[in-house]
Amino acid sequence: MSLSNCVNLNNSNLDGMSSDFLYHLNINVANTKDTQDIQKQFGDVRVICMGGTGRRMLELAKYLRLKLGISGEGEPIDLCEAGHRYTVYKVGPVLCASHGVGSSTCSVVLHELLKLVKYAKCQDPIFLRIGTCGGLGVKPGTVVVTKDAYNGYLRNEHEIPILGERVVRPASFHEQLIEDIVKYGTQADDGFETIKANTMSTDCFYEGQGRTDGAVCQYTEEQKMKFLQTAYEKGIRNIEMEATMMASLTLMAGVRAGDICVTLVNRLNGDQVTITMDEKHEFEERPFLIVGRFIKHLLNN
Ligand code: R2B
Ligand code: URA
């Protein structure tokens, strides 16, 4: 197998490890110098889709089976069930993995999935997050494909404490990939809008996103609206909780990534997510459509 498009992670310590247990996935890489078994199981993976809940990832797995014409009997199997943390389904060359809520839970599984694709010698794998979000000045149901990810300080960067120091890293998604997701993933008759825009990503759904309806709130409605307006002026059209981490970690790992989210609420009109569960379900399928078409195009070309 050609090694040219394999993932080379930014951590030389991995080269010195004879084995690696991907603890939260419950996947044991018994011999990092000979990963034939892992290559056999995962070496064909081209796309890793990630989303908040295991249930949504199961639905995505079933949807992709049909869309990509991949045969499979019965329910897709959760390959990481024994890890009791995350669910991972494999549909041909696509993994569908859950990541929970927020950057900290998402980064755990992302680190381990990045190591998995390295050990499996996957060729140029693409990581796509498929999620829900709050909207900023866009109609609920609009799909936003993230360009630059901004943190809760409204800075286009990912900030993380490492060894007691403040570490700041770039947080943008792959430009050409974003273009291609919109180009090959959308159709004029979709019945909803898909836009490229910036995303604000916070560590807190309530205060971090400027909501006044959390358990605690120490600012006025006016201050909140000023903050949201400033975000809008930076080209931010949606708010979620993983984008800066995902953009920065995938950039550091040298893999292409995208973040495709459907808005559930227009935050310029209110804080509460009041759509019905049926509407939410219908909205959640919109990123499936886009990603499904994009993946189909990718695999056929
Ligand atoms: C969007 O929705 C979740 C919070 O409700 C979070 O995972 C996110 O980014
Ligand atoms: N997810 C978020 O992070 N924010 C919202 O407003 C809705 C979904």
UniProtKB/TrEMBL annotation:
Q: Record's Pfam families?
A: PNP_UDP_1 (PF01048)
Could you name the domain of life of the organism this protein comes from? Answer: Eukaryota
Q: Which GO terms describe its cellular component?
A: cytosol
Give TM regions. none
User: Which biological process, per GO, is one annotated for this protein?
Assistant: nucleotide catabolic process
Quote the CDD domains the UniProt record gives.
UP_hUPP-like
Single GO molecular function: uridine phosphorylase activity
Q: Where is the Nucleoside phosphorylase domain?
A: 46-284
What are the binding positions for substrate in this chain?
Answer: Q209, R211
The record's Gene3D superfamilies line, in alphabetical order, gives:
Nucleoside phosphorylase domain (3.40.50.1580)
Q: Where does phosphate bind?
A: R85, R129, I130, G131, T132
What is the similarity comment for this entry?
Belongs to the PNP/UDP phosphorylase family.
Name this polypeptide is given: GH19395
